[in-house]
Amino acid sequence: MRLLTPTEFSRVYDCRQSAASGPLVLYAAINRGEPAGVRLGLSVSRRIGSAVIRNRWKRRLREAFRAVRPSLPGGNDFILVVRSGEPPRGAAGAVAVESLIGSLATRVVGRRGYAAALPVPRPAVAGPPKRRR
Asked: Is 0.90 surpassed by the pTM of this model?
């Protein structure tokens, strides 16, 4: 299962539970409304490189997540954000990404207060200030 809509992404980001290591940042939130599965969202910006590199990252992350998914705690939503760099290559790269995802997820979910974390409300976005005449 995947996170697809902007509301799902913003809910996870608003919980402000994250861990970072190397080129990855993992955001997590408890999934209170869905079945007890684990869902993933990916964020690979244009800063990372061309479409070829971004898609390579996404393929690598999806495959690593499939391998790690059974060991992750159920009922959580995760977002993986790529900060920089080329995607790891080969079998050693795949194992490295899998272990990195697993360790980041355990670090975030194992934090004290994670289960009680609620989304922080965003302030209302005001338009540009009015001009005085």
From this structure: no
